[in-house]
Amino acid sequence: MEDFQVIDTQEKLNAVVSERVSREHKKHEALRTENEELKAKISDLNSQVEASKPLKSQVEELTGKVKSHEMRELKIKSALKHGLPYSLAERISGDDEKSIDEDAKTLAEYFKSTKPVAPLKNTESEPKDSKNAAYLNLIKNL
């Protein structure tokens, strides 16, 4: 408390108050300039955000295309793995590799033959003349 001085005149009071006011005024000016700088930065950042919006939509569009191509590749790979023709790869459904593989396996079961079918009995009659019978016999023995 050694620094305390008694203010006994109006001039001393005015000097102390004006000193305090000038300090506060300097603080206020510093805050004002900082505020203006921050406003400028905010407007710059807002313009950058606005400029990046079309890029964001392009990124989303390209991401969607990549995902669809990856899914198509998975379907084709799974179809060929299970012996399905390439043209049936688009018929396979699923959201991930496991479900696509299961659907391809199920679809492939419909196209598998369980056992071979024996050929039908020859329904043609035997030729009556010997010339045709000889030719027929020659063809059978080939």
How would you describe the overall organization of this protein?
With 142 residues, the protein is an all-alpha fold. It has one domain (10-111). The chain is built from 3 helices and no strands. The protein is rod-shaped, with a radius of gyration of 46 Å. The model has no long low-confidence stretch (mean pLDDT 86).
Outline the fold blueprint.
Layout lengths: L9 H72 L15 H15 L18 H11 L2
Helix pairs in contact: 1-2
What class, by secondary structure content?
A: mainly alpha
For this structure, the quaternary state is single chain
N-to-C span: 130 Å
How much of the polypeptide forms β-strand, as a percent range?
under 5%
The succession of helices and strands, N to C, reads HHH
- Average pLDDT rating: 86
Biggest sheet character? none
The share of residues in helices is 55-70%
The best one-word shape is rod-shaped
- Roughly how many Å is the radius of gyration? 46 Å
Number-wise, the strands total 0
Q: How many separate domains make up the residues?
A: 1
Number of helices: 3
Can you tell me the residue ranges where pLDDT is under 50 for at least 5 consecutive residues? Answer: none
